[in-house]
Each structure stands twice: as C-alpha cells, then as structure tokens.
Amino acid sequence: MRSQYTSPEMDWNSKDDAFLNIVLPLMEKYEETFWFADDRVAITQEKANTQSTPGWTDDLVKIGKIKNDHLKGKYIELERMLSSVVCLHLFYDGTKTAYDKFISVQTKNDCLTWASFQSIHELARRVIKTPALFEAMEAMLIYSDIGKTPKAREKAKELNITHQDHDDWIEAVLSQENNANISKIIPSFFKLATDNKLLLRKIAMAMKIHLGHVAHLEGGEKMFHKFHSAVSKGMVDPSILEFAFLIQLCDVASSAAHENNKGSLALVEGWYQVYVIVNQALQVITKGGNSNEALHFYITKRGEQLNLNASDAQEQLLLRLSCMLRFYNAQNSGLLKEIAKELSESSWSVLKTQFDLFGGINSWERNPTYVPAVFLNLARLHADNNEPNRDKLFRALNGFVCLAKLLEDQAPQNKNNQTPISFNELAKLASEKPDYFLISQFDQSKFRVNDNNHYVYGELQNVSLKKHY
C-alpha cells in the first residue's frame, strides 16, 4: 500500500523554520537551484525593481551558501522559485497557522479567504498522495523556470534546444524521447523516481498550454489549440489537469516573492477566483468542447466579473487590457472604461486591428510574450507616491495603444514567423522611462526588434541583452 506523503513538521510562526526545513534541503537535493544565483539569469521584468524586505538571497549569502558580489539586491528568480515550493508546503499543510502565514502580507479586504485556502489544500491532498508525487511537484516548480538560467541554456544547446521562451524551452526539454538527454541538461532529473520521470514527461507533452497566458488573455483561441489536440488524443486526464493547476497556483502565489517572501502578496481572493474560471474554461475542452467555446466561456465569465460586455468590440478590448492588468473587480475596469472615452478613433482602430481576440496578433504564427508586464509596470508607476488610480490607468491605456502601433509595424514579418517576440525589455523600459509610452510623446521610430527577437528602445542598443532569453 502506498504511504500518504507527510510534510515536515513546521513552525510557521518561526522566522527561520521555512529556510532551515524547506529551502536548505531543497538546495541540497537539486543542484539546479544554484543556477538561479547568477546575475545573468533572465528576469521577468514585472515590478522587478521593487525589492523591499530581506529575502532568501540575503539568508543564503549570510551562511555562505551563495555569493552576490556584483548583485544589487536579490536574485529575483531565485526568490520566486524557492517561494513557490514554500507555498506548496503551506497549501499541503492546510492548517490555520499555515493559512495565517500565507496571508500575513496581504491586505485584510483583499486576502485569500479561509474557504479558498482550504479548497487549494484539498486539491493538494488529492494530487499529492505519496512522497514521490510531492517530489514530482517540487521538481516541476524548479524545472519550469530553469530555462531562464544561462547554465541550463548552455547545456541544452548541445541537443539543439534553443527555444527563446522559457515555457517552450522546458516543454522541449521534457519532451525528449531519451531520459538520458534530459539528465544531460537537468542533472537532478536522473535521480528522480522512474514514475516521476514518466509523469513530468507526460505533463510536458499533454499540458501544452500556459494557464497564466489564458488568465491574462495574452492570446486568442490558439492558446487552447495544442491543449485541445492533446485532449482529443486522450493524453489529458483529470489528474494531470489538477497537477498542472496546483503548479500554477504555487507559481502565482510566489510571483511577488522578491518584494516580500514572508507570505504570498500575489494570490489574493480575487485573483484565485480568476484561476478558478481558467480551470473551468479548460474543462469546457475536457468535456468535449472546442477552443473557440473555451475562449468564449472565459471572456464571458471574466466580462461578468468586470462588468464588461465581451460581445461589444470596444469593451472586449478593454476586457483584454483588464485581464492583462490582473483586474478582478468592476471598480478598476469601470474606471478604465471611463478613461477610454478620451481615446481617438485612430487609437481605437489600431487597438481593434492588433488586439482583437479573434484577429490581429492572434492570427500570427509568432507569439508575443511579456506584453502584460509592460502595462502592469505602467499601471503600478508611482504607487508609493499615492498617484491617483486614474493617472496610473491612463498610462496603461496609453501603453496599450503604443504597443498596438508597434505590433502593427511588425505585422507583415510576424504573420508566418514562428519565433516568439519578447516585450520583456520594454517592460523594464516602462518602469524606467514611462513617458516613452504616452501617446503624445511616443516615437515609434526609436523602437525595434533586435537579433535576440526582443523589442528594444534605440537608446538601449548598447545594453547587453544576452542575459535575457
């Protein structure tokens, strides 16, 4: 009989218990965790310049586990990755003490409810029935972002795996026919139980969909096509879907860990309910529906949540931007709708051409990545200076129009190009030079796509972009 997994006894009130009982043993077990302690690691530039409290980087440097001689601040992706596993332990624990720890950095009027935390706990208990399954879960949390590290990239080149997007990259690695090839790139994979190797490969081949991309409406129905194909071939069962959903919740919960790792800043109640809708949209397909029906289900439910009519052309565009801005209540989307009345006909026209959910960039072969990060960084600008919400949303709406103009410029060469185009550098630029994304000051001629398929601003051409994949 298989034994139920038992998590380590944790004192969640202790300042050091998670570090001593989760973080350090994890780093001993997976050598790849050290690869994240490298200032060349590609960083998701979403609020990456906000690093308030001491984190795992500080703790690890203090005991000589890692060095940061040339680093200003933290290893951001290391913080996120380690915290994702800590969040997994919190979810699996499911006690009131674990819940209090999880919400300790959230605001009272927005925190994840006890009922929702218990729902995630029950999911974790269904998915993780044995110690081996817990190992598979923690391994996937580490491996999922390992494509951001230069060391993993260098190893993968030997097998001609050069996908620029890290989600595509890990899918390609774990889809290798030979386990030995995977172990050449990810050494700890060799040490995993045989069943776990099979499980991770099965998930990589079946779950060809990024749940975060659906939540943010980063694409149209094409987001669902590969998943629909996998379902049609019988490759996806409920257990795989639940495994992937729990992975995503841990990933979301830790996405702001570089700001504060004492709990979860990101997975608040409203955002959790968004992912419930994402999961329901995938179930449309598992129950026999198609990609178009799944997309319509998602935008209809999100439209109801945000009080936006998904069938109206202009409101559908505002719905898409609202999803990219991670709105989950009608207050902000209502304000965005009010501000949008100031847009010119030409601005609406370019938005319709490029961001319509059933046309524009969604008909490209090429996948634009990190687009939401640009708008999020613009919307969060000057938050510490109490800038009115209206001003922040005005900036995000301006950025929406400016990016549409850039995409319009790229449309001819992107139609049949399958290489992803990254906006990660522009997300960084949005934090540092937000006025560049005001319609009144936007100079389209200064932006271009570099050799690494990153959109960059002309003045950044001498910055080393080889760090970012």
Strand arrangement across the biggest beta sheet: 1-2
Strand content: under 5%
Number of domains: 2
Number of helices: 21
The best one-word shape is globular
Helix content: 40-55%
Structural class from helices and strands?
A: mainly alpha
| End-to-end CA span | 45 Å
Report the major sheet.
Answer: 2 strands, parallel
What would you say this structure looks like, in words?
Helix 12 packs across helix 15 (291-306) and helix 18 (345-355) crosses helix 20. The protein is globular and about 60 Å long. The model is unreliable at 382-388 and 460-469 (pLDDT under 50). It has 21 helices and 4 strands. The protein folds into 2 domains: 17-267, no CATH class; 343-460, no CATH class. The chain has a two-stranded parallel sheet. Strands 3-4 form a two-stranded antiparallel ribbon. It has helices at residues 17-29, 56-62, 76-93, 96-102, 114-127, 131-143, 150-157, 166-174, 179-185, 194-206, 211-215, 222-232, 238-253, 269-286, 291-306, 313-324, 330-339, 345-355, 371-379, 389-414, 424-432, and strands at 368-369, 421-422, 447-449, 455-457. The chain has 469 residues and is mainly alpha-helical.
Helix-strand blueprint:
Blueprint: H1 17-29, H2 56-62, H3 76-93, H4 96-102, H5 114-127, H6 131-143, H7 150-157, H8 166-174, H9 179-185, H10 194-206, H11 211-215, H12 222-232, H13 238-253, H14 269-286, H15 291-306, H16 313-324, H17 330-339, H18 345-355, E1 368-369, H19 371-379, H20 389-414, E2 421-422, H21 424-432, E3 447-449, E4 455-457
Parallel strand pairs: 1-2
Antiparallel strand pairs: 3-4
Helix pairs in contact: 1-3, 3-4, 3-5, 3-6, 3-13, 5-13, 6-10, 8-10, 12-15, 14-15, 15-16, 16-17, 16-18, 17-20, 18-20, 19-20, 19-21
